[in-house]
Amino acid sequence: MFILRRFAALGVSGKVDIELFGFPMRLHKEGNLSEKRALYAPQFFDFKERQALASLAKDNAVFIDIGANIALYSFSIAAAFKNFKNTRILAIEPHPIVSRRLAYNLSINPDLPIEPIFVGLGTRDGIMKLFTPDNNFGESRFLEEGEAASGEVSEIRVRTLIGLLKDKNINRLDGMKIDIEGYEEAVLIPFLEQAPQELLPQIIVIENNHTKWKRDLLALIKTKGYVGRSITRMNVILEKVQS
């Protein structure tokens, strides 16, 4: 598949308007690996993870997509959520260029229950510096205090997850996807320590960045009643055991 994708890419330049997950979308060939994967091989794009999250669809269901990129997860889950009442999808994406691409795709799909939120998430409210490598917007990450980086750096407004959910009047989460290039523990540890049980999502899909974490984040999540449901090439799927 990867070899064929290289050949397919030779005939494509710039941006491409396609139908994906049943919706019109615009994808870009350059600068974002997630878009390239979806453009040339959407059937392989985190299928098991998206299937697990889509199974949560029901009236009043809420899904939060942390590190949404152009919200491929959000659009995929929306295909199931749109058939139920009062569903909500929060797509969290702070990168200035990627957020504009996300906003465009939402503008041509105005009836979907997706709310874009163009801020970062962290340990406290404030401003942080987001570093973007030259070759992939999806690998953007927040710099540690005092850390320097050669490349594009943007100043981004950052919120705590608990504070954001409170502002959005959300008192339940059914599903969560989080992929923020090793910064997952900065978001999840305060959330897990402060959130009431009823706010903890039924399913968490987290990119397995254990080599970048300072603590055993998966073990901490499991102390909150989660069990490992599946491990894929890039992610871990955890499910909360009903008490």
List keywords for this structure.
Rossmann fold; 7-stranded mixed β-sheet; disordered N terminus; 8 helices; globular; alpha/beta; 243 residues; 27% strand; 29% helix
Description:
- With 243 residues, the protein is an alpha/beta fold.
- It has a single domain, classed as Rossmann fold.
- It contains eight helices and 13 strands.
- 37% of the residues are buried.
Cα separation of the termini: 43 Å
Give the DSSP E fraction (strand runs of 2 or more residues).
25-35%
**What coarse outline follows from CA principal-axis ratios?**
globular
Q: Which sequence of SSEs, written as H and E, runs from N to C?
A: HEEHHEHEHEEEEEHEHEHEE
What's the story with the biggest beta sheet? Answer: 7 strands, mixed
The total of beta strands comes to 13
Measured on Cα atoms, how large is the radius of gyration? 17 Å
CATH domain topology: Rossmann fold
CATH class: Alpha Beta
CATH superfamily: Vaccinia Virus protein VP39
CATH architecture: 3-Layer(aba) Sandwich
Helical segment tally?
8
The secondary structure category is alpha/beta
